[in-house]
Give the backbone structure.
Amino acid sequence: MSKQPKTSSQQRRIIFEWVTFFVSATLLVILLKIKQDLAALFPSSTLSAVETAEVVIAGLLGIYAARQLTHAVFRHAKSPELILWREPTRWFMYVIVALFVASALGINLSGFLLGGAIVGVVAATAAQTTLSNLLSGLVLLLSRPIRANETIYIRSWMFGGQEYEGTVVKIGTFFTTLKRDSRLMLVPNNAIAASVIVLQHGPLQAEFELELAPGTDPQTLIEFLKRELELDGKAQIIITPLKYSANDSLLTCKVQVRSKLSVDKLKLTQALIKANESLSDKSSSIQPNVN
């Protein structure tokens, strides 16, 4: 289904949000730059009231700028996990704006910042893994190197060199859910972000080993299995050599069947039996180990 074009009202709304953000942010910067010159225009008796008004106006401009920026950035967010970040991001920007305005107006924040830094270090150390998964999940949702219903192949030092493969079901806040066969795997987001990711054409539906005699044409076997299994044009059958036996001159290979459509195990077994009979003059045996 093709994406519907944005309506003129939506486009105007997007432009309005970005323009108002830049205008309010610019006014905030100008106000902070000329605050002393502005205060000098009023009598000294009203200095306290002028400074209070500057703080209020600067705060309102900062809050409005943060609000418009958050709206503009998250306007196209459709994922529930990504939408979940909208409010925390907005409040984080409010805190940054408050600290920036307070510092620019000469308010001493050293004690507050020191206490906050100590608490932040302790909290970050205690929740290091949780925060790592949280931030990695945000990176995956924003950069989108993987998407739902894609089949991926990952390998990371976090797995001790172990390799994992599956179809992406969901990218959550802390975990990414992969599905292989009927099993669901929850992989930490930081492991996904630190992995080498290979995008496959189709999920692994079956895997088995076979022994090929000298002179056997792998392409003939691939075409035979595709025809018997009624696979579509995008499906893949990959044959990888494993070991060669010099005694009986047999080559042991691993065969993978990759397809977006499921492969019936009984039908696969029957196809292997037919292949063994059809290629009996070329292949001495086929020993399936179907997963």
Notes: Residues 47-74 form the longest helix (28 residues). Residues 282-291 have pLDDT under 50 and may be disordered. The radius of gyration is 31 Å. The CA atoms of residues 13 and 72 lie 9 Å apart.
